[in-house]
Design a protein that fits this description.
Number of helices: 0
Number of strands: 14
Strand content: 35-45%
Helix content: under 10%
Radius of gyration: 18 Å
Length: about 200
């Protein structure tokens, strides 16, 4: 069968300053970006240290799509990862470490789940009480909680934590690996699951 043709509506153009864009994006700027709730901004990770080859410090930035204006959202000594904009565009959840990491360090510190206002400001760690390496944060459709995975004794568990605080609740906790997951607007979760 013939494949559908996909056309581009506009000419591609860079959104950020070329001094921070290099041939290997992982050196300074992550290609993992998300649009804000109204689509006016893109959220991305960037390492803007004087020597990004020595200091592994990625922070969250936003770029205004129409003007290319970049603003910094987080400024921490740790490494921010996997930013996800809330459904209403007002918050960003992400995983991060909290201590300074150089490129010669192995990241021994567990990444945890955080939330910050999309306008910047104080960050809040959502799952401090869970001493496990966390990843893959995703908002619930109502923006009141974050789902994420965490490794635990050879398995990967799917958790839910409220943005208002409180304990993380295991949604799927069995001798298995919860793989990629996605949540529909109606709350239905699709995921990959491997059993031992």
């Amino acid at each position: 069968p013939p494949w559908p043709r996909i056309g581009l509506a506009a000419q591609a153009r860079p959104f950020t300053d070329s001094s921070f864009s290099v041939a290997t994006p992982s050196l300074r700027t992550s290609v993992n970006s998300r649009r804000s709730g109204d689509g006016s901004e893109m959220v991305f990770l960037s390492n803007r240290e004087r020597d990004p080859d020595a200091a592994h410090n990625y922070d969250i930035y936003a770029v205004t799509v129409s003007t290319g204006r970049v603003r910094q959202i987080t400024k921490t000594p740790g490494v921010e990862m996997e930013p996800r904009v809330s459904p209403d565009g007002k918050w960003i959840t992400y995983t991060a470490t909290t201590r300074t990491v150089t490129t010669i360090d192995s990241v021994a510190e567990d990444a945890h789940v955080f939330v910050v206002s999309a306008s910047g400001g104080a960050v809040q760690e959502l799952n401090h009480a869970l001493d496990r390496r966390s990843s893959s944060p995703e908002w619930t459709p109502d923006g009141q909680a974050v789902l994420y995975t965490a490794s635990d004794h050879g398995k990967t568990v799917l958790y839910r934590v409220s943005v208002k605080g409180g304990a993380s609740v295991a949604l799927i906790d069995r001798k298995a690996q919860v793989g990629p997951f996605s949540m529909a607007r109606n709350g239905l979760i699709a995921l990959g699951l491997t059993d031992p």
